[in-house]
Amino acid sequence: MAFKGTIVIDMEKCKGCDVCVTGCPNSCIALSKKVNKKGYNYLEMLNEDSCIGCANCAVICPDGVLEVYRVKV
Amino acid sequence: MTREEIIKPENLVYRRTPVLTDATMHYCPGCGHGTVHRMIAEVIEEMGIQENTIGIAPVGCSVLAYNYFDVDFIEAAHGRAPAIATAIKRLKPDHFVFSYQGDGDLAAIGTGETIHTCNRGENITMIFVNNGIYGMTGGQMAPTTLEGMKTATSPYGRDREIMGNTLKITELLAQLPGTCYVTRQAVYSPATARKCKKAIRQAFEYQKLGKGVSFVEVVSNCNSGWKLQPVQANEWLVENMLPMFPLGDMKVPDKE
């Protein structure tokens, strides 16, 4: 049984701390080169296909900016 | 399967809990306070106790905690959160009362209140965020600062001869008869954050039993105070803080 997932990022609240990136087991996420209104390099999805919706990034996010969705495939 | 097909309400596995307000937290990027706030809010949501929970905010970085929780909150004078929690719990014994404090607040200015509240065995939950530094005031030395650690007031590193030993207050409190559950957790990785949430849940459950103080220490980072990037600060925490502050339960009540 495999899972497929995706995340929704509240990019205006993201502070670009990079902690979630180290928590991701499949290296799906990375900080963007663009900045949000506060000047932080916000998080973006790099590799949509390898996300399994494990919610590690959301559990470790200090600012609670992530929503995680997961389906069985 | 496209992104639009996955993003449906029935597939939601994690979202920001509504017990937290929509306000953007003022903490530095990567600060453990935000994670601990979210863990507490999630526990309150899971237990369905939002209406009858009262929190006590400390002085320190988390002085504005009341802006982020959608529960009743009182702001305490520096270090006096356990004293206020005592009063509230005695007046409203059917409410869940928790204090949220940092190491400068709980282990320095409020040592007296902390020890006596734990010794009296008030039925409250105490959350203690330990980052070994006074973060809010500019990174001064705290009682929990490690030996040799450089801070604004110990620029050559903490010297035991002059500045004393690192205070392991959680070990101290575990010896007191008034505490029922004493544990030390961390939030530097997803696995430890999940464990930390379980511990906070346990602490709130033990408050129901009325056996005394349930105390959760969270070893956290202070990347601004430690002058490190958030990820490096977490690595520094694992290398330096954890040998001094090992994780795990120190006291668990007997099962009946």
How would you portray this structure in words?
The complex is a heterodimer of chains A (73) and B (256). By secondary structure, chain A is mainly β. Helix content of chain A is 14%, strand content 36%. Chain A has two helices and four strands. The model of chain B has no long low-confidence stretch (mean pLDDT 94). In chain B, 50% of the residues are buried. Chain B is an alpha/beta fold and 256 residues long. In chain B, β6, α8 (190-209) and β7 (213-219) form a beta-alpha-beta unit. Classes of the chains: A mainly beta (73), B alpha/beta (256). The A-B interface holds A 4-6, 8, 10, 13, 15-19, 21-23, 40, 48, 53, 55-71, 73 and B 1, 3, 5-8, 11-17, 20, 24-25, 27-35, 38, 187, 189-190, 193-194, 229-231, 234.
Secondary structure blueprint with pairings:
The complex is a heterodimer of chains A (73) and B (256).
Chain A: E1 3-9, H1 19-23, E2 29-35, E3 41-45, H2 56-60, E4 66-72
Antiparallel strand pairs in A: 1-4, 2-3
Chain B: H1 3-6, E1 12-14, H2 32-47, E2 53-57, E3 72-75, H3 81-91, E4 96-102, H4 103-109, H5 111-120, E5 125-130, H6 160-163, H7 169-174, E6 179-186, H8 190-209, E7 213-219, H9 223-226, H10 230-244, E8 248-251
Parallel strand pairs in B: 2-3, 2-4, 4-5, 5-7, 6-7
Antiparallel strand pairs in B: 6-8
Care to count the β-strands of chain B?
8
User: How much of the polypeptide of chain B forms β-strand, as a percent range?
Assistant: 15-25%
* Count of DSSP H/I helices of chain B: 10
| Highest CATH level, the class of chain A | Alpha Beta
Helix content of chain B: 25-40%
The third-level CATH topology of chain B is Rossmann fold
Shape of chain B: globular
Strand residues, percent of chain A: 35-45%
